[in-house]
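Pilot study result, target chain (530 residues):
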Amino acid sequence: MALLRDPLLNKGTAFTEQERDSLGLRGLLPAHVLSMEAQAERVLTNLRSLPDDLQKYIVLNALHDRNETLFFRVVCDNIDEIQPLIYTPTVGLACQRFGHIFQRPRGLFIGANDRGKIAELVGNWPYPAKLIVVTDGERILGLGDLGANGMGIPVGKLSLYSACAGIRPEYCLPVTLDVGTNNETLLNDPYYIGLRQKRLSGNAYDEFVDEFITAARKVFPGVLIQFEDFANHSAFRLLHKYRDKICTFNDDIQGTAAVALAGLFSALRVSGGRLIDQKLLFLGAGEAATGIADLVVSAMMAQGASEADALRRNWLVDSRGLVVKDRAGLTQHKLRYAHDHAPIGDFLTAIETLKPTVIIGVAAVGGAFTPEVLKAMGRINQRPIVFALSNPTSKAECSAEEAYRHTEGRALFACGSPYDPVEFDGKTFVPRQGNNSYIFPGIGLGAIASGTRLVTDEMFMAAAHTLAHLVSESDIKQGSLFPALARIREVSAHIAAAVAEVAYKRGLATGQPPKDLNAYIQSQMYDPHY
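Predicted structure:
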């Protein structure tokens, strides 16, 4: 019975006649033996009959809880269909409703009331974790503070690490640091699963996080820790504090940057321009915006630009307008991109004034790329580059159809949420999601396979170049700036090899480099079969 209740070992009705005899399962299962293929077909048949995506999320989550091998087989073989159900955009709604749809705990919930005994809690985890995704739930996607309900994000993210890059499920540990929530709706929700208190802050918060980091590294030596969906004021500080000391990265800052830079490289294959000649205007000035800008500046400098010139080609617009040097009270991460310029209060005027070649939306303000904004970009540029990267879909700056229609089909478009192909003026455009899932699974696989001590900016630059290189001419011709999602395991393997190569070259890896790095990476990838 224990075997049937262990999701890592359970095969359900696929246990063979011989296994049923030898493992004491006879009588505990119905008589007919199904193949994995038949089981997967049954899952998909039931899934496709459900009325909405949240119901599909719940069913897939239940499958994940009882049979991980079958779950990952279904995800891997149907990634285009399933990824939006287990991650963005559906996971946003799932987090909002997390307490109401809760069935079974997954991962570790470490509360502010556990201070002083976090190592004991981490030691309760029964598997040898090599990868932790941790959140404090303060900035879940574009939805804000969801507290402990944010656990849906680390769970979903780690599902993609396993499905997209073949990191074994038992190596993956989702963690929520439950430091409370300032969301009054949740505090008054009878089904909210977290601590019913205001958020821990200041030194007490930092000490709590540090106790967790110390405990995780003691219990799981060499573990890769990925920070996820922390608010700006915590994300930058924590990344700066730990990035040169332990194996860690922040996907919202660094992963987003790499996928956006890869998209820019692909777009420039169409427009024929050089990166150092582009001018970027960001709607948003938080983790994603400054993370992308930082990597773009590094890429421009690699192409021969001075740092000052590269910085001057990246501009930010936040809720108060254009970020300029004379504005008082700028936070540290914005100062680097606060240029000498007269204040401008709105995004459209900033476009008309600065004449950018690229606009990137990462502010989670739905509909912010208005028809007027898109038409202005089309007037200024022959091939305007428009990245509406906020998610979930309700927070997208514009839809794919709007981007093409208001630029007469000339936009080079990438999105943060999935969109169907668009028919315009006799041509079919296939917009692809500029989703971090193209980057972070390969980063994680490369880091684990090489045993790197640090995750560096050079690795993210290598990942961006690798991803861009994998975009085919046929992709480009149909308006796709990223490879087909069906190629994600191939993409992740290439990125992992590029990351591991940097680790070996810089002396960060443990052990000697393998003779055939690509073959070694492939050998490390989990393939879900019974």
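One observation from the pilot: The first strand starts at residue 108 and ends at 111. A full batch analysis is planned for the follow-on phase.
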